[in-house]
Amino acid sequence: MSTQHKFQNLQAHLERLIVGQSHLINRMLVALLCDGHLLVEGAPGLAKTRAIKVLSMSVAGDFHRLQFTPDLLPADLTGTEIYRPQDGSFQFRPGPLFHNLVLADEVNRAPAKVQAALLEAMGERQITVGSVTYPLPQLFMVMATQNPIEQEGTYPLPEAQLDRFLLKVLVDYPDVEGEREILQLNRGEALHTGGDEALFTPADVLPEAEVMAARKEVLNIHMAEPLEQYVVQLVVATRQPENYGDDLAGLLQYGASPRASIAIDRASRAHAWLSGRDYVSPEDVHAVAHDVLRHRLLLSFEAEAQGETAASMVDRLLERIGVP
Q: 0.85 exceeded by the pTM?
């Protein structure tokens, strides 16, 4: 079985275990294939933690969940040096960031110093403690969650850190049929004591080498030059929206950085690959555009007063830029 088929089977298996969150599952796999990080926003109880935990079991990666709180310290993430009185030396004890998949739960509850430590880990794939820098695992992915309901005691993420996330996914409640399936799945799991580990056989688990091979296949997916120009034009349009209509002038304070162009390019390739194709189509670009751009656009006060959102701005730009 090819690596592509294995990932498609994995996606189908995850959708059976995480009911009603097909979009989230697809974007987790896209982020994994693109060597990127994922920011998820949604109400409590929508299986965000379970989703990445089950994903870590499926790719032979170790998982760690971090509950972010206002009293968290950078050393609680990175690790710290422990004094050894027997020989008077210091020994570094790695923190939870030295895992393959890390869930930063309610990331906006941590103060700026902690967010800065996470920023270095996400962007540079390394941890610096004192004067020594330690590399993180080759397979390293952060999935951070935000609760949109309660804002008291939170610290908004700085723009530089938001830009480090490949995608921002909005998670909503399942429909009525999905809610019924969740009840049935929960009853079935309550009847056995194997835990989530029992849901995977050794044959279901993808080794790290196979994940790295899949990433290379994704990079080799064909994207036509006109479509590549379309991606660049879309990102540049977020910086100069007035070029696509006088009614768009002044609605965006800041547009997306070049990281957005890279993110759309790689995410659309991964989306096409997971769909079973060896080329990128405009539909793939449209499928990932909102998740790539929604956290990279800074709306003006005028736009907010008019009821505009980042999603609506992306919609308007997609409508006005001609598809190749």
A: yes
